[in-house]
Amino acid sequence: MTGQRDRWAELTGGQAGEDYAQRFARLAESGHDVHGEAAFCTALLAPSSRVLDAGCGTGRIAIRLTELGHRCTGVDVDPSMLAVARRSAPTQEWLLGDLVQLDALGLDPRFDLVLAAGNVIPLLASGTEPTVVRQLATALRPGGLLVTGMGLDAAHLPLPEPTVTLPEFDEWCAEAGLTLRERYATWSGEPYHDGCGYAVSVHSLPTT
Q1: What's this model's pTM, rounded to 2 decimal places?
Q2: Under a CB-based contact definition with an 8 Å cutoff, are residues 129 and 101 in contact?
Q3: pLDDT per residue over 48-84, tens digit each?
Q4: Were 80 and a residue from 17, 106, 108, 170 both cysteine, which residue would form a disulfide, CB within 3.0 to 4.6 Å?
């Protein structure tokens, strides 16, 4: 742990797990598709791929990806979120850890895909973003994919103003050796254009 509170902790005090899970349960009960991220990732993956859900929260996406046949590890810094994940899927691998020090968890760094959904990047502690992107890139195998989803305006963030711009994010990815492959406006694959309030980005690690 770095000892520096991330923006998520500042918002929630680390006690949001149950409320977060109930929010998505209500959405599912009302007929909303709550598995868009998992479907998006599965379309990019071969069967039985290794996936790291970085900032996995209550495990919603990782659990669904496991149901779809992939091998998923979830990492989160919020114990209240991980408590829900462990209760929901006790046999899956859930790790408590700070993404700034992901390498300290001793993971086998050959994941086919690393996912940072749910505004993980904008909610990091200020100034740690480039380090986290490097850590996520290091966890990939050659040819592996980093998939991220992030709000770019206040309407798509639990914050009064955005904390990350796409040019900044792409620069951090380039510094980590990643190349932008695709970008969309939603998890359902709607085209991205300048001015969109949300971006789903797919960056790849070169094979050589």
Answers
A1: 0.88
A2: no
A3: 999 999 999 999 999 999 999 999 999 999 999 999 9
A4: 17
